[in-house]
């Protein structure tokens, strides 16, 4: 048969002209070059974007992380063991998106939004990008609303505002997660959506966490995102971004959300693992060079939006676990410098019975002061100073030298303030309850009670206040203010309570019953005329002579 080039060209031209580019499936397809440890190298995806989702066989999802000259390095989610060399990889043209929406409330999900609890499917078709550029300064407004943790020690001295980033840092077993849990419980009815991101924890711990929240009725406005210890590094790496995206759904809807990342040390370790497998060059402590950017771009997404954008807020409470209290390691210093302050927990304090074990001297909140309720500000103004004075004097008093009455008074006050700030876990207090407790300490009412009895005194006090002065408590809770009249009434109520409770000391600080307090007794002894003491010494001398040499 004779071939006529003209005819062929004509046919081809007709075909091409009739092509509808929209309906044609023009996705770019590549092939897997190598696979191992959940990381694939893919050839042929020339136009692939960073953080683009890739489609692989067996429902495996890939995330393009390394864009190199002749291949793309991707981490895989799902059954990556089934992938073999030569498998086809399809571009999706979409950046990684996370399912979001109200349907997630009350659920325990993995970082891709798939349920890990037994409550069935998550029915939502809304999604948000996992990585989202943080709003600039023009879109923000100052942090001014309190985010109450319900913990006296934090709300009085290290107040946190909605939209703030406050780091919780400390060794293992110092009560970091307990603070997170109490905060969520305290906010069950405060119009604050809580998202708890558990990274690298045991699944049993996470489930226990959820059960406690359910018991306290706090799960309805909470989402738990879990990337447990046995998950692959990419899943752990994704978890905080997923939690943040779920929070942003509420943020950009004009609501208030709180994201707790527990903890970012394990997140950094997962990123290091992933980066080394992707053959990125290791830097300090073998972390890749961009580990600072990893955390800063996450925490920068915490924001208080301006009113035109709805005035929503996203508060971030990242957690960092230190080794032997070393805050100068790489990851802790990074996150300290990114956040607006830190709550520093210490093992020594924890074991000496200070719980929550907060080191007041080095814990700060750099923006939350504006968000503290007026009532709390009024009663807690001098608290921090008194406590640091106490810690200083305490160290000094250990030398056992004679202490003047003024120093003794400061020590006694400090001891009671420390006792007053102690709080059992899972029992967060309302603003008014906290104000009452703190005022009893800073107002000097607790000075007449032995430090060991302070805790039970405060419990009785709050019970009685709720019964007899409910209106006063309600006023503090509703307005956040403590008027002069209310302060006076509160003082009188506490004084009455001291009398009924049975004080250990009189108004001058003398013990009411013998042997009540060692410190006050020694003060009394010293107050006796010096002559008497000398006589006593002389009397003792002959006895000593009788001792055989
Ligand atoms: N305020 C508290 N009072 C009493 N026990 C506490 C308090 N806070 C924490 N704990 C206990 O201390 C232990 C460690 O707490 P956890 O929050 O798990 O520490 P971390 O998260 O720092 O490892 C837990 O057994 C917890 O019950
Ligand atoms: Mg913990």
What's the total number of strands? 17
Strand content: 15-25%
Q: What about the largest sheet?
A: 9 strands, mixed
Helix fraction by DSSP (H/I, runs of at least 4): 40-55%
Poorly predicted residue ranges? 514-523, 528-549
**Alpha-beta content class:** alpha/beta
Average pLDDT, all residues: 90
Through-space gap between termini: 136 Å
| Large-scale geometry | elongated
Distinct bound molecules: adenosine-5'-diphosphate, magnesium ion
CA-based gyration radius: 31 Å
The number of helical runs is 18
How would you describe this structure to a colleague?
The protein is α/β, with parallel strands linked by helices. 40% of the residues lie in helices and 16% in strands. It is built from 18 helices and 17 strands. The chain has helices at 5-17, 152-157, 176-186, 203-215, 233-251, 264-277, 291-299, 330-338, 347-351, 374-380, 383-397, 405-421, 431-442, 451-468, 470-479, 484-501, 518-527, 530-545, and strands at residues 29-36, 39-43, 52-55, 61-67, 72-77, 88-95, 97-100, 108-109, 126-129, 167-170, 193-199, 222-227, 256-262, 303-304, 313-321, 341-345, 364-365. The strands form three sheets. Strands 8, 10, 11, 12, 13, 14, 15, 16 and 17 form a nine-stranded mixed sheet that branches. The chain has a six-stranded antiparallel β-barrel with strand order 1-2-5-4-3-6. Helix 11 (383-397) packs across helix 12 (405-421), helix 12 (405-421) packs antiparallel against helix 13 and helix 13 (431-442) packs across helix 15 (470-479). The longest helix has 19 residues, at 233-251. The relative contact order is 0.09. Mean pLDDT is 90; it is low at 514-523 and 528-549. Magnesium ion binds next to helix 3.
């Amino acid at each position: 048969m004779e071939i006529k080039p003209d005819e062929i060209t004509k046919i081809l031209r007709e075909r091409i002209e009739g092509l509808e580019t929209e309906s044609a499936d023009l996705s770019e397809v590549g092939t897997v070059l190598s696979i191992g440890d959940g990381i694939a190298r893919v050839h042929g995806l020339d136009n692939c974007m960073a953080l683009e989702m890739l489609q692989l066989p067996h429902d495996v999802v890939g995330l393009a992380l390394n864009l190199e000259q002749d291949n793309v390095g991707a981490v895989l989610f799902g059954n990556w063991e089934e992938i073999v060399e030569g498998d086809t990889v399809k571009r999706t043209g979409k950046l990684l998106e996370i399912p979001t929406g109200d349907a997630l409330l009350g659920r325990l999900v993995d970082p891709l939004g798939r349920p890990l609890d037994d409550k069935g499917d998550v029915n939502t078709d809304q999604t948000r990008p996992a990585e989202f550029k943080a709003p600039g300064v023009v879109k923000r407004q100052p942090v001014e609303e309190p985010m109450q943790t319900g913990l006296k020690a934090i709300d009085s001295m290290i107040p946190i505002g909605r939209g703030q980033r406050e780091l919780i840092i400390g060794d293992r077993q110092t009560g970091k997660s307990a603070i997170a849990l109490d905060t969520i419980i305290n906010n069950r009815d405060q119009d604050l959506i809580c998202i708890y991101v558990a990274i690298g924890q045991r699944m049993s711990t996470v489930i226990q966490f959820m059960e406690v929240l359910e018991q306290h009725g706090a799960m309805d406005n909470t989402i738990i995102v879990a990337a447990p210890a046995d998950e692959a590094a990419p899943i752990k790496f994704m978890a905080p971004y997923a939690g943040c995206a779920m929070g942003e759904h509420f943020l950009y809807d004009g609501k208030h959300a709180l994201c707790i990342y527990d903890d970012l040390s394990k997140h950094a370790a997962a990123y290091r693992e992933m980066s080394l497998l992707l053959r990125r060059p290791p830097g300090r402590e073998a972390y890749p060079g961009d580990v600072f950017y990893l955390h800063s771009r996450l925490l920068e997404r915490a924001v208080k939006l301006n009113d035109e954008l709805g005035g929503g807020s996203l508060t971030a409470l990242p957690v960092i676990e230190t080794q032997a209290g070393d805050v100068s390691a790489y990851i802790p210093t990074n996150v300290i410098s990114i956040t607006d302050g830190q709550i520093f927990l210490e093992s020594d304090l924890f074991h000496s019975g200070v719980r929550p074990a907060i080191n007041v001297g080095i814990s700060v909140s750099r923006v939350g002061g504006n968000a503290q309720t007026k009532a709390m500000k009024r009663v807690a103004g001098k608290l921090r100073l008194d406590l640091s004075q106490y810690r200083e004097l305490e160290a000094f008093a250990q030398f056992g030298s004679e202490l003047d009455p003024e120093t003794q008074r400061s020590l006694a006050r400090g001891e009671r303030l420390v006792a007053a700030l102690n709080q059992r876990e899972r029992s967060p207090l309302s603003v008014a309850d906290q104000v009452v407790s703190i005022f009893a300490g800073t107002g000097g009412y607790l000075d007449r009670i032995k430090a060991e009895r302070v805790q039970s005194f405060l419990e009785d006090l709050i019970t009685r206040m709720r019964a007899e002065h409910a209106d006063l408590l309600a006023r503090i809770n509703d307005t956040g203010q403590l008027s002069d009249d209310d302060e006076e009434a509160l003082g009188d109520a506490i004084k009455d309570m001291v009398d009924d409770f049975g004080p250990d000391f009189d108004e001058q600080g003398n013990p009411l019953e013998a042997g009540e307090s060692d410190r006050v007794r020694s003060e009394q002894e010293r107050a006796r005329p010096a002559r008497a003491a000398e006589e006593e010494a002389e009397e003792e001398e002959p006895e000593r002579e009788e001792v055989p040499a």
